Amino acid sequence: MRLGLAQLNTTVGDLAGNRRKILDAYAALVGQGAELVIFSELIVCGYPPRDLLFKRSFVPDVEASLREIAAAIGETPAIVGTVETNTSGLGRPFYNAAAFCHRGKVAAMARKCLLPTYDVFDEDRYFEPASQPTVVAHAGRKIGITICEDIWNDKTFWAKPLYERDPVAELVLKGSTLLINISASPYTIDKRFLRLDMLRAIATSHGRPVIYVNQVGGNDSLVFDGQSVVVLPNGRIAAQASSFAEDLVIFDTETNQGDLHEEPAEEIEVALRALICGTRDYVRKSG
């Protein structure tokens, strides 16, 4: 299966602009032969939406935008990060979700299991955690879908895991053959090395490729580095997107080959890109 990784720079609240970016990237990757296109966390509304979620019309508008996106998705499915209303009446009002869109509709919905409440994150304010991670069957494969924090609790990597659950291990027990993570992981100095070591640990310990698609760009006080990547069970990086730039990457699960876009060797160069990207996007997006 040829996977298309769509690393995009969206704007929080710009539903129409984000939708255009999503559909343009989808068309471009399908044109390159992608058989599944993967977008980042909460891409429909942009991340982090914060208290916009509590505006009465905001989440209904996000859900309407998702329906428009799904209507334009054809034979090639897409995994799209979005907000889903919690209709159970129990817990927080929303889910941080990933919509599996196929043939003009939302065919399945995966929900985030682990909700960070430390550092810059306050997701428990808005979202209800999923009771279990989701596996989607497609093209003879079992696709395990996680969202950002869900992969940051591997018990073989962390000496003191933050949570009791490990959604990735749960997906492996469910028979997942591909482990996909859609993220909005902010940049900090040297984080790329930690994150890559963690992804390698997950891929090697579970014997499955890990496909990681991250957001890129500055939103308010946060800047996201992108650096979407595919890590094979032997630890090899098989595909990699650029840092601090929108990028489209193809990875073939049959040949284990993909696009490898060059990254800076020195962390000071990465930090410079972060400063430029964050400043540029703050000015551009705020007007």
List keywords for this structure.
six-stranded mixed β-sheet, 5 helices, 287 residues, alpha/beta
Concise structural overview:
With 287 residues, this protein is α/β, with parallel strands linked by helices. It contains 5 helices and 15 strands.
Give an overview in words.
α1 packs parallel to α2 (58-71). It contains five helices and 15 strands. With 287 residues, it is α/β, with parallel strands linked by helices. The strands form three sheets. A seven-stranded mixed beta sheet has the order 5-4-3-2-1-14-15, with helices on one face. It is globular, with a radius of gyration of 17 Å. The model has no long low-confidence stretch (mean pLDDT 97).
Helix fraction by DSSP (H/I, runs of at least 4): 25-40%
Total E-strand runs: 15
Tally of alpha and pi helices: 5
Radius of gyration over alpha carbons?
17 Å
Strand order of the largest sheet: 5-4-3-2-1-14-15
**Helix and strand succession?**
EHEHEEEEEHEHEEEEEEEH
Termini separation: 41 Å
